[in-house]
Amino acid sequence: MIVFWVLAPVMVLAALGLVFARKAVHGALCLAVVMISLAMLYAVQDAPFLFAVQIIVYTGAIMMLFLFVLMLVGVDTSDSVVETIRGQRLFATIIGLLFGITAVIAVGQTVALTVTGLEQANANGNPYGLAELLFGRFVLAFEFTSALLITAALGAMVLGHRERLSPKKTQRDYAAMRMQAYAADGKHPGPAPTPGVYARHNAVDTPALLPDGTPSELSISATLRQRGQVREGFDDDIHDIAKQIEGGEQ
Amino acid sequence: MNEYISLSMILFAIGATGVLVRRNAIVIFMCIELMLNATNLAFVSFSRQHGNLDGQIAAFFVMVVAAAEVVVGLAIIVSIYRTRRSASVDNASLLKF
Fold it and tell me: Is A69's Cβ below 8 Å from some Cβ in B?
């Protein structure tokens, strides 16, 4: 019972966090907290098999899938604050509160308090008892779930598939494109020079030096140039760096 | 026993409110998962109360169905996002265009 009273407030708070979180990723983390706490409640309630399944299937597979799609769809897609139906949020909250209060009161008045416990049913171990039911009385339902899972996998493949509108470019096409660019405006068809060639450092932010000593713009990533993080690299800046390091240590 | 069922009811109510309040399709989906989890808790609690494992089998099947539902639902969300560049349920109200 201690486990329950420790976990129940955490679960309710995390569930509220899921509803109120501004960012979907925070909501997903709150849901993960709820699911792991739920797994612990299963363990307390003599359901060790469901404890393992809850951790593996829910927190492992389903939450991973949720986070994957969240990252794919864009973490920044936030909720619109505009209400399409006026007062919908307020009424939804009121109805939710009423439903919750009514349900809790109803449960408090009706659910009988005699708890049989699972000692007898779990006599041979919980997975054994579940397997006996699953492959005995519920074997038909079990077979249907296999059909359901295959259908779901096929459906996901069909929905996720995208027709290619133009033929895929091969290596040969890319080579031809490079040679055409070379013929048109003299762009070098080979790979760009690597950073740091003939320069003092070979870090990615140091441009390569051409034979006449001028830095080669091509050897540096355009992102670094835009951020202004390109190191000059050929003045006597080594003394400045040495001074900086010594200054930092003092 | 009452505490477990009450917790399950509270979680279910929170999930249902979330479905009504939120606009982001993925968050709505997560609220549905919360409701399914709440019913699973009730199943497991009743299984302990009645002393047989039928409730745990039901919870197991709910998990299988939830997994299948999440796979298809998220595929639908991704394909809607691809055409509309938005995961808000308000924008997809016309079922076409």
Answer: yes
What is the chain B residue with the closest CA to A52? Answer: B60
Return the closest-CA partner of residue B44 out of A217, A27, A117.
A117
The ipTM value here is 0.90
- Each of the 250 residues of chain A gets a pLDDT tens digit; together they read 888 999 999 999 999 999 988 888 899 999 999 999 999 999 999 899 999 999 999 888 899 999 998 888 866 655 666 667 778 888 889 999 999 999 989 888 886 667 777 778 778 888 898 998 999 999 999 999 999 999 999 999 998 888 888 888 899 999 999 999 999 988 888 888 787 776 667 777 778 877 776 777 788 888 787 887 777 655 556 566 667 777 765 4
**Report field, pTM of the whole predicted structure over 0.90:** no
Decide: B37 and A38 in contact? Cβ < 8 Å. Answer: yes
Residue B84: phi, psi to the nearest 5? -110, -15
How many CB pairs (< 8 A) connect A and B? 235
A199-238 residues labelled b (16+ CB within 10 A) or e (exposed): bbeeebbbbbbeeeeebbeebbeeeeeeeeebbebeeeee
> Exposed, middle or buried by CB within 10 Å (0-12, 13-18, 19+), for A250?
exposed
A231 — alpha (psi -120 to 50), left (phi > 0) or beta? beta
**Partner B contacted by A77 (CB < 8 A):** yes
Q: Pseudo-torsion of CA B24, B29, B30, B36, nearest 10°? A: 150
- B71, B79 in Cβ contact below 8 A? no
Identify the CA nearest to B53 among candidates A236, A121, A127, A94: A121
Instruction: Report the alpha-carbon distance of residue A123 to residue A125 in Å, rounded.
Output: 5
Phi then psi for A191, rounded to 5 degrees? Answer: -70, 155
The alpha helices in B22-88, defined as continuous H runs, are 25-50, 54-84
The answer to whether the beta carbons of residues A28 and A63 sit under 8 Å apart is: yes
Retrieve residue A1's tokens. Answer: 């019972």
Q: Using CB atoms, which residue from B37, B54, B74 is nearest to A38?
A: B37
Chain A residue with Cα closest to B85: A73
